[in-house]
Amino acid sequence: RTQAEMAHTCRGTINLSTAHIDTEDSCNIVLSNGGRTYHLKANSEVERQRWVTALELAKAKAIRMRNNQSDDSGDEEPASQSDKSELHGTLKTLSSKLEDLSTCHELIAKHGAALQRSLSELENLKLPAESGEKIKAVNERATLFRITSNAMINACRDFLDLAETHSRKWQRALQYEREQRIRLEETIEQLAKQHNSLERACRGAPGLSSSTTGITSTTKGSVQSAKGEASDEDEETEYFDAMEDAPAFITVTADPKHHRRSGSNLSGASEGHPEDWNLEDSVFESSNQSSYNESTCKDLLPKKRRRTRIPDKPNYSLNLWSIMKNCIGKELSKIPMPVNFNEPLSMLQRLTEDLEYHELLDKAVKCESSTEQMCFVAAFSVSSYSTTVHRTAKPFNPLLGETYELDRLEEFGFRSLCEQVSHHPPAAAHHVYSKRGWTLWQEITIASKFRGKYLSIMPLGAIHLEFHSSGNHYVWRKVTSTVHNIIVGKLWIDQSGEIEIVNHKSKDKCQLKFTPYSYFSRDVPRKVTGVVSDADGKAHYVMSGTWDEKMECSKIVHSSHGSTSTEGKQKTVYQTLSPKVLWKKYPLPDNAENMYFFSNLALTLNEPEERVAPTDSRLRPDQRLMESGRWDEANVEKQRLEEKQRAVRRQREAEAVEALEEGKDYEGYIPLWFERKVDAVTGELICVYKGGYWEAKDKQDWSSCPDIF
User: Fold this and answer.
1) Which backbone phi and psi does 387 adopt, to 5 degrees?
2) Region Disordered: which residues (predicted)?
3) Which of 250-254, 326-330, 333-337, 343-347 has the lowest mean pLDDT?
């Protein structure tokens, strides 16, 4: 019992830490504490003895707990109390076991003395000679038992004294180490904050900032500095290269004129011709944002006027910890959450948001070189994360059978369809067809874990992209997203990991690295770097940028091996031409902070449309109520929909059991617009579009759709 429970004096309880335990006869036990006395009767002497032993142990434990609580009060902060190390826990357990051993020692001594007295009394009685010999033999055995027990008790007492002495030393050493660790953490955090402040002040100082994206070197070259930072001293550069997460290669900006004259003298693993790198003959565009927008928007002007705003997000307060404290370690999709944590879009609509920069794929169609096309595909794969930088709210979990269509065939040349094909684990199938020459499909399963301080979101499944004219088939997978400061502080999201994009026709590859944010890194936050290489491993382009702002591409004209770092890794030095912007993020609409930080595309995703399927996410009532600002009604409707889905699942499980009993096969849930097939490229079983949706929409025949809302 806890101290609070022991102090609680309701009828039927007694504080064992101050109680007296006595025995009246062979079956009765007396518990007394002040003016309160309890008489307990056992069925036999053996049962009485078991109760007495258990009560003695419980009393010793209660005394120990009371002493520990009085000793520990006010010694530590609540945060450190909950953060005890494994060694401290081991010492606590050892101390508890030693206390139990000490109690057993006292009980053995007590009962052994009583047994000895009883045997002595029997020996003094006048009994037949045969009985006297047997009693004498028992007495001798009892004496041996007492001697052995005393020896064991003495050894245990010595061990107890030794353990207590060392335990106190360990406790003091542990406490000292804990205090040192806390002081070190506070010092490091303070230094990191000061470092960031100084860095920001240095960047804002006159003469140190630059509007260019890199530093043009002399003919010898210099290390390209991202975001226009001033070049470092030699000592600092060496220190930076020796960092644990330092890049595996160094990019050096070459002088095009110099290389045009001496190109025939270049040597190395990879060489290129600068003459190929010009705006007139390449699909690549300049880094000027205005020309970029003009070139991309002339033929993409919407023919239908879409909405540009939604109702502002209500300012409802909510105790986050009261809900999340029971969710640690659980699968996020199995936790019932109020809409207060959501944004008024479903996961199917968030998946469709990957198409915001679809024009990158339209440009990739025009590329004659597969490695050049790979650059656009890589930029497209990074652009899908740009909308997540401020989007820390959770999308609605789609109901099983829920669909979402985005028909932009007349405006942008593509039409997209998503369907929730599994509920546990949650999985969504996605298919996009573009009349401009490409098709994209994927099946994504979201695995997520709440870790207490942060939330990890791990998309599982491959993304396929095929270009119709060339037959180039690209496959890649998403990186892990992490939402930090779940309990305390401002929520922020980060992307980390690596993406390997493979062209399964030409065997070209692009390895992209998403660098996780770190207090101590001198890199630009949210940095992405990568190299595009052909089937022979020859590097052609260097990709660089950030996943929330832009991606650039630099053509490699020469590569060589640099010096070996302190970790023993040899870096590759790439000499490149000036970088060109492939993708730049569109600015957010006005008042975006009050509209869940939605982009222009996201604002239109839940806009009501006619002729969509009855399972479309736009028709989901709880999501529509939340978008309108009626959150209380949305919570009620969300619970109704989830309970309806549970009832359908229970019915399906009952049908499966019935089929099993009858010896029949039960197929389970079958997706409506997708079917499971083994992918010829990856060998995985995935859901692919089987057709029929757009034909059903033309006929307005939705008779096959389930009633999920």
Assistant:
1) -80, -10
2) 65-87, 203-237, 254-309
3) 326-330
